Amino acid sequence: MNFLNSYRRFAHILKFQRVQQVRTLFSAETLGTNIYQTNCRDALNNVEGADQFKWDLHAYVENESTKDSQKLKNALEVLVHLVKSDSDDVHLIKKTLYAFDSTDGLTDKAKRSIGNLVMQYIHSNNMPNVALDFFSDIKLSEFFAGFKCTLMLLDLLYINGQFDKIIEIDMENRSKIWSSKTNCSKFLDVLVFGACYKLNTAESFYYAHKLWSTIEKTSQFRRSLSFFAAITLNQGKSTEVIQMLENLETNFVDEQIKLLALADVGNVKEIIERVSTWKDNKKLSKHKISKNVMDGIYQRVQKNSTADDRKKFQETYNVVIAENGVSIETLEQLLDRTINSRITIRG
User: Fold this and answer.
1) Which of 20, 150, 269, 303 is 20 to 30 A from 164, alpha carbon to alpha carbon?
2) Count of C-beta atoms within a 10 Å radius of residue 16
3) Contact, 78 vs 10, CB < 8 A?
4) Is 289 in a helix, a strand, or coil?
5) Residue 99: which of 69, 132, 121 has the closest Cα?
6) How far apart are CA 150 and CA 272, in angstroms?
7) pLDDT at 19
8) Is the pLDDT of residue 82 over 60?
């Protein structure tokens, strides 16, 4: 079992490859990938014997008739920090997981612990198709059944634009996974609402509308409401947007969505009042109005309002621009800001 000697050499040495940095909807701290990424950044730059470790492990997995679960667990914990993102290394991880699963006495907790670690490797190296392959493998289902793994999967799909897949997974798993994790379901819900918004189709709006009508709204991230309001706006239902955002605590993203909705219905008077008093509002004054939102309001006012209202808004628009009251961040970018939640995700 030469790979065990290699393991001892790597027990305190973590991976030397540079982890890809991608902007995720959830922070690394929320996803649980921060420790893996920190270990990668702090690793030594010159490690000898990594290839030998992998060869020895491969031989053990393929040829050893009786396999030791603890030794394989230790090997997997090292392996995810030695492998790269090529197909051979991914295959070795899968083969080692198969071998680990074949040993006696494994608990669900042990499997999910390793599954979380493997998923951290997959997420940190931005491999959505690998994630889908592992999740769809029936032999590995118990490794990736935990809530953290599911969250990492959906976040990975989100940042790679696989929005249809997010909704498909939600449809397949909501009743058997989501409902049993009511204290954590909001983490998954916001990704589903985000996917619906990104797709911006009649079908995705219907799905978002149906979901919004069934979930416990008081426990949701405010971002879920923002995504739902944004797709409702994009689907031409501005009156509904105004109604759903009425009498809610002030939020600078939702306020901008509401301004666009007010412009759609031609309520220039309220738009001018809200824009003019933006800097006097304690919560709103910490942020500037997005330039692309102001331009969107301008275009709508030109289309939906009287000449007198257009003139009045033009004056307000000019003042905001002159006072540098706009930001270059688009509404899309504001909706995609990273969520950093301190809520502990169990499972």
Assistant:
1) 20
2) 15
3) yes
4) strand
5) 69
6) 44
7) 43
8) yes
What's the pLDDT tens digit per position in 285-295? 999 999 999 99
Of the candidates 31, 34, 32, 37, the one whose C-alpha atom is nearest the C-alpha of residue 14 is: 37
Burial 292-317 (b: 16+ CB within 10 A, else e): bbbebbbebbeebbeeebeebbeebb
d(CA 75, CA 81): 10
Q: Give 62's Cβ-side CA count (13 Å radius).
A: 8
- Tell me: pLDDT of 41 over 70: no
Residue 152, both tokens: 């990492």
**End-to-end Cα, the chain, rounded Å:** 33
Q: What is the pLDDT at residue 46?
A: 38
Task: Give dist(CA 126, CA 137) in Å, integer.
Answer: 19
pLDDT tier at 13, thresholds 50, 70, 90: very low
- Give, in order, the Cα–Cα distances in Å from 24 to each of 56, 119, 332: 36, 15, 14
Instruction: Give the Cα separation of 110 and 27 in Å (integer).
Output: 25
In 3-state terms, the chain is what percent helix, strand and coil (to 5)?
Answer: 65, 0, 30
Q: What is the pLDDT of residue 192?
A: 97
* Per-residue confidence band for 8, with pLDDT thresholds at 50, 70 and 90: low
Rounded CA separation 86/106 (Å): 29
Half-sphere exposure of 151 (CA within 13 A, CB side): 28
Give me the pLDDT at residue 216, please. 78
Supply the pTM of this predicted model. Answer: 0.89
Nearest to 165 by CA among 117, 143, 133: 133
What CA–CA distances, in Å, run from 244 to 45, 217, 258, 345?
A: 53, 12, 9, 29
- Measured CA to CA, the distance from residue 253 to residue 123 in angstroms comes to 28
pLDDT score at 112: 92
Q: Dig out the tokens for 26 from the structure.
A: 């959830």
